[in-house]
Amino acid sequence: MVYLFLAQGFEEVEALSPVDVLRRGGVELVTVGVGARVITGSHGIPVIADITTSDISSFDGVEAVILPGGMPGTLNLEADETVISAVRYCAEKGLTVAAICAAPSILGHLGLLDGKRATAFPGFEKDLTGAVQGIDGYVEHDANFITARGMGVATEFGLEILATLKGSAVADKVKGSIQCRA
Fold first, then answer.
1. Is 10:42 a contact under the CB 8 Å cutoff?
2. pLDDT digit string (tens) for the chain, length 182 residues
3. What residues are paired with 90 via a beta bridge?
4. Is this prediction's pTM over 0.85?
5. Are 86 and 65 in contact (CB under 8 A)?
């Protein structure tokens, strides 16, 4: 199971494109609203989450967490204890932790990117504490961490997560079915 956390002010495409890609690939993905079921994105689009953070009693069975960016969504994610606990749980277990746009800053603030290639929306590189700098990729995958720069690569980000969880053959099949050139 994969948890994708939604906090007020999240970037809609950065969240929903990976949701769509992963579900097409057969991944059990659960959207988790931080503090509420209806979460409004940074562009005023309300989304109904499958569950809320208060519904989570353990992380048993979780194989990955995904953090979409956006403002103030990223700040709201970082302020939530359940989100941070889920990220730490996956990091400690070597499970996939994926973050896009401003959200990789959360991983940097937690000290999880030490010596790892990572990227983020331009201007947030300073928050990638310990990460290898000077990375030109729009999506970076190092160990169990997948980071991406922003909305324009949200589908590619989702496909990288899918390839990690289900293999490249599944990701390639989904990529072909959605006519993605990335």
1. yes
2. 999 999 999 999 999 999 999 999 999 999 999 999 999 999 999 999 999 999 999 999 999 999 999 999 999 999 999 999 999 999 999 999 999 999 999 999 999 999 999 999 999 989 999 999 766 789 999 999 999 999 999 999 999 999 999 999 999 999 999 998 76
3. none
4. yes
5. yes
